[in-house]
Amino acid sequence: MKWTKRQLIIIISAVIAAVLITTVILIIVSVRKKTAQKEPRIISISIDAPADIPLEEKERIVYQSLIKAGYSPAGACGIMGNIAVESPDFDPAAVNESGGTLGLFQWNDVGDRKQRFKDFCKENAMNWNSIESQLAFAVYELSGADPIACRLDDFLKETDNSYAAAAEFTAGFERCVSDTGKAKDKYMGSLYPEFYGNYYQGLSKRINKAMNYYNRFAGSEDDADITITIE
């Protein structure tokens, strides 16, 4: 049977599309298999500092805590860039009355994450509205408790790119997807291929803040009179 040029183009296009789809599926399955085996970490954070401290001190406390929890300077700053958009005052007691979201990361009811956070605090005798409990639960989700967020854990420990850290954290942890947005708010990362091309609320702002934190904190000596213990 002799194929026409148009038929050949259609067949070749279909084959290429099938190969690409299969490749993406295999990558996703492979990544999920690797991360599904991780056991979540439950850490205890003790911060020796008064509650009514200035924003700059709260930022430094969060940075130091994330570093002690095992994340790289760039990874920690990527997380902080997102916190700065979700809770600009780094207020762990922040509650969005209209959406019902709460805390540094503004956990919501999607996937029962907010309820799981409250259950985590109850089971581990923690006050929900503290920096300690919220960073502990974030590490718990990142290290294996949340099937999507846990892909971030190793990346945030190893990366030296605060830009990428902020973008990947937005897509995989915050998941604040938007129907529309500007080109600069489009996710172009590689850790979540299934989210590629999605728009995320304030993505460029999160990235800029993360890079500013990195310039401020990375490589600096800690001379603050603050004690942070993580077990």
How is this structure best described in words?
The chain has 8 helices and 4 strands; from the N terminus they run H-E-H-H-H-H-H-H-E-E-H-E. The N and C termini lie far apart (71 Å). Helix 2 crosses helix 3 and helix 7 crosses helix 8. The protein has 2 domains: 37 residues; 192 residues, Lysozyme (Orthogonal Bundle), CATH 1.10.530.10. By secondary structure, the protein is mainly alpha-helical. A two-stranded antiparallel sheet has the order 1-4. A two-stranded antiparallel sheet has the order 2-3.
Structure at a glance:
It contains eight helices and four strands; from the N terminus they run H-E-H-H-H-H-H-H-E-E-H-E.
**Percent helix range:** 40-55%
Tell me the count of domains.
2
What's the total count of β strands?
4
CATH architecture of the largest domain: Orthogonal Bundle
> How much strand content do the residues show?
5-15%
Q: What do we call the CATH topology of the largest domain?
A: Lysozyme
Task: Give the SSE string.
Answer: HEHHHHHHEEHE
Unreliable parts:
none
CATH class of the largest domain: Mainly Alpha
Radius of gyration: 20 Å
- Side-by-side strand order of the widest sheet: 1-4
